[in-house]
Dihydrofolate reductase family protein (Nocardia niwae), 194 residues
Amino acid sequence: MSKIIAVEHLTLDGVMQAPGRADEDTRDGFPDGGWAHRHDDPMQAEVLGKHMAAHRGALLLGRRTYEDFAGYWPRQAGNPMAEALDKTEKIVASRTGSGPLPWQNSTWLGGEAVTAVPELRRRQPGRNLVVLGSGDLLRSLMRHDLVDEYLLLIHPLVLGTGRRLFDGVALGRLRSADSLTTGTGVVITTYRRG
């Protein structure tokens, strides 16, 4: 059966909201968007690239994350990450979405994610689903014990406010599979269900 793998940037206090840009997600008046770039370094890019290559499959994205990515990545000509994302199948989970999706290789999941995702996993054995960002979707999957692996990039930063990955979720035991620290102090760690 395929795995569901979450790849998330977090602060030390668990904030996952808007790591990429100031205007990425300002819900609840969040003023600190773009916080992850303070700690960018080549090691992060290398680890993420290897991880994505090793876990071939599709991206599973919430509607908000999909719309944000679709508005940015297709316009990044010559960027290897953009080219990889363009070629990757993107499956979009949304309770309200319908109609054509603007980014190539994109389809709607259809139905409630917590029932549609297990069926998708059964239909596509050995083909992993990687969740990037997509906090609401990810927390829903976590509450139903559907996430198999977490690749967390934990930044040496405490924000005090913002949407957190583990709010309202009790995971139980996880086991550490790998960990390293970048030159900028980001701990990149992989946890799997225990």
Notes: The chain is about 25% helix and 25% strand. The first strand starts at residue 4 and ends at 11.
